[in-house]
Design goal:
Elements lengths: L2 E6 L4 H12 L6 E8 L2 E8 L2 H9 L7 E7 L14 E2 L5 E9 L2 H10 L11 H10 L4 H11 L2 E9 L6 E6 L4 E4 L4 E4 L11 E4 L4 E6 L2 E6 L10 E2 L15 H7 L1 H12 E2 L2 E2 L8 H6 L2 E6 L1 H18 L2 E6 H4 L10 E7 L5 H12 L3 E6 L5 H5 L2 E4 L12 H20 L5 H11 L2 H9 L2 H11 L4 E6 L3 H16 L2 E6 L16 E6 L5 H13 L3 E7 L11 E5 L7 H19 L18
Parallel strand pairs: 17-18, 17-19, 19-20, 20-21, 22-23, 22-24, 24-25, 25-26
Antiparallel strand pairs: 1-4, 1-10, 2-3, 2-4, 5-6, 6-7, 7-8, 8-12, 9-10, 9-11, 11-14, 12-13, 15-16
Helix pairs in contact: 3-4, 4-5, 7-13, 7-15, 9-13, 9-17, 13-14, 15-19, 16-19, 17-19
Bound molecules: 2-deoxy-2-amino glucitol-6-phosphate.
2-deoxy-2-amino glucitol-6-phosphate binds next to helix 9.
Length: about 600
């Protein structure tokens, strides 16, 4: 996703902007640029490719100025190119704009402005904003911006500077996040906290339809209609050092190895002195007792966690549960039932599709419970109730530790529901919690056998297509394992319910097709063995994830990865670890950019 940074103060503007953009680079980008105001002289630089291209150019220059904005672009409208990189300037180059989001009516606006004789330099939607501001620029920059945003439809986070008023940055938020950092005789803006945290822990989160006029010693926040808004300055408590690699080659690997600690942390937060810690929920016990249906909606890995949650909510809490991909949920003309609760799952808390569904559900008077990792995110602030997944900051674009965190936190919540709905006895709940507490050790055991997974990754890394199969709670595991592989190694991979093989995918199987088979001890183990045999009979290569001690599996597996014995409900947690490592080492073998895979972003804040 695009990244926005801005600075006003006495320090070196270009270096603060570049460091900020670097700290946002994990969001994914294809080009970058900055604009700097030196009194009333506006300069700008933009480069295609990685940030070092921009910093190399800026390093040759002496740039003066005390205000600047910067941007890393993740292309939506217009190919990755220098012309399409931000900032974009108005026709007279008096105004510079950086933007995160999509202006849905930009073509109409562009045609109108072209009829006024304005020329455009790029193919982007963003450029209509800089042109509109200059078009409206009569008296005050603020008024010109206010008139401009009235014309825009779609989502935008904007940062704007202008020669005409060289003592301020003006920012606007509608649908894409923007944060203000409060310093001493300096102020900062950014798309997310990461870019600001090295300078200050005092933050203001803008909400939708709000704008801010940011001067060196003053921040004024208004609604788009111009009413003054008093916002709380929040102090960020978490440690910025945690956002470093700590000796690992990649954030993704660091985050894979953090998973035992993450699980221990979640248990300590959601189970205090052996008791469930959900009293903060604004959903009453009666509402949870009477709920007839949960509708889970999420994207990507979070959707996979939702699929696992469905199995366990229905199995233990005995509640009918639907699971929707967010971008589909909005448009399926759902029939409202009674006593229904929408559940949103999101690591970032900013995913546009999931956030849009949350808002839609609330507009239709649903209660929304969200499992969110990022505190102060939009979903954190807009949900009726939030359960944090306590994964810590997840930098790698491929979600690993937060997937495990989602599985663990939703499992604990399911057991809590089973307690208040009397669908499990106290003894049954205690036994399940006691087993859950062993999971961190089991993950550590799997992580201690990474060398074997490295060898398997090397053996198959040149294959052009993989299949992942599983049954029951491990059908979502198959989906997640295939997503991990494809998103960081760019190898085509598909996750499938194992029982569906003979309804089509079996035609794909040959000696060049590795099939990852998730076959732990489970209710459908024998059926999984039949499916593995179907693959073998067609010369497919079988990489089987099996339960420790199962030696018979070797007769139908080309390669075996063992996981410790646990109840079937918890196998998606353990099975995920070897598949994360398989994806990671395959991507390394192929020389891929593991933390910032091409075309992808950590937080997809556009629909
Ligand atoms: C997962 O590895 C991907 N990065 C992606 O599918 C991600 O899970 C999805 O974009 C949802 O993100 P969220 O959890 O922040 O909403």
């Amino acid at each position: 996703m695009c990244g926005i940074v801005g600075y006003i103060g006495e320090r070196d503007v270009p270096s603060i902007l570049l460091v900020g953009l670097e700290r946002l680079s994990y969001r994914g980008y294809d080009s970058s640029g900055i604009a700097v105001l030196d009194h009333n002289e506006l300069s700008f630089w933009k480069k295609l490719g990685k940030l070092h291209a921009l910093s190399d150019e800026l390093g040759k220059l002496t740039i003066k100025g005390d205000i600047g904005i910067g941007h890393t672009r993740w292309a939506t409208h217009g190919i990755p190119s220098e012309e399409n990189a931000h900032p974009h300037l108005g026709p007279k180059k008096k105004v510079a704009v950086v933007h995160n989001g999509i202006i849905e009516n930009y073509l109409i606006l562009k045609e109108k402005l072209q009829k006024q004789g304005m020329l455009f330099r790029s193919e982007t939607d963003t450029e209509v904003i800089s042109h509109l501001i200059e078009f409206f620029l009569k008296d005050s920059l603020e008024d010109a911006i206010r008139n401009t945003i009235k014309e825009l439809s779609g989502a935008f986070a904007l940062a704007i500077i202008s020669e005409t008023e060289p003592d301020k940055i003006i920012v606007c938020r509608k649908g894409s996040p923007l944060i203000i950092g409060i310093g001493k005789n300096e102020n900062f803006i950014a798309s997310d906290i990461n870019a600001i945290i090295p300078h200050t822990k005092q933050m203001i989160h803008l909400d939708d339809n709000e704008m801010a006029i940011i001067e060196k010693n003053k921040v004024t926040i208004k609604t788009f209609n111009g009413e003054i808004v008093n916002k709380e300055v929040q102090t960020i408590t978490w440690d910025p050092v945690a956002a470093e690699k700590s000796g690992y080659d990649h954030f993704m690997l660091k985050e894979i190895y953090e998973q035992p600690t993450v699980v221990r942390n979640i248990i300590s937060k959601l189970l205090v002195d052996g008791k469930f810690s959900f009293n903060h929920l604004k959903l009453s016990r009666q509402e949870l007792n009477n709920v007839n249906r949960f509708i889970i909606q999420a994207c990507g890995t979070s959707w996979h966690a939702g699929l696992v949650m469905k199995y366990l909510l229905e199995k233990y809490a005995r509640v009918i549960t639907d699971v929707d991909i967010s971008s589909e949920f909005r448009y399926r003309h759902k029939v409202n039932g009674i006593n229904e609760i929408v559940i949103a799952l999101s690591q970032s808390g900013e995913t546009a599709d999931t956030l849009a569904c949350l808002r839609e559900a609330k507009s239709r008077f649903y209660k929304v419970l969200s499992f969110v990792n990022s505190k102060n995110s939009s979903m954190d602030r807009e949900s009726d109730s939030v359960i944090y997944t306590y994964a810590g900051q997840e930098i790698g674009v491929a979600s690993t530790k937060n997937f495990i965190a989602q599985l663990v936190s939703t499992y604990i919540f399911t057991l809590y529901l089973s307690q208040i709905r009397w669908t499990l006895t106290e003894e049954e709940i205690k036994a399940k919690l006691d087993e859950l507490k062993k999971i961190p050790d089991y993950i550590e055991k799997i992580l201690s056998e990474t060398e074997k997974i490295k060898k398997i990754a090397l053996k198959y890394h040149k294959c052009k297509s993989y299949l992942f199969i599983g049954r029951g709670v491990n059908y979502p595991s198959a989906l997640e394992g295939s997503l991990k592989l494809k998103e960081i190694s760019y190898i085509h991979a598909t996750g499938y319910p194992a029982g569906e093989l003979k309804h089509g995918p079996l035609a794909l199987i040959d000696e060049n097709m590795p099939v990852v088979c998730i076959a732990p001890e489970a209710e459908t183990y024998e059926k999984m063995i039949s499916n593995i045999e179907e693959v073998r009979a067609r010369k497919g290569k079988t990489i089987v994830i099996a339960t420790e001690g199962n030696t018979a599996i070797h007769h139908c597996a080309d390669d075996v990865i063992y996981i410790p014995e646990v109840s079937e409900d918890l196998t998606p947690i353990l099975a995920a670890i070897p598949m994360q490592l398989l994806a990671y080492y395959t991507a390394i073998n192929l020389g891929c950019d593991v933390d910032q895979p091409r075309n992808l972003a950590k937080s997809v804040t556009v629909e």
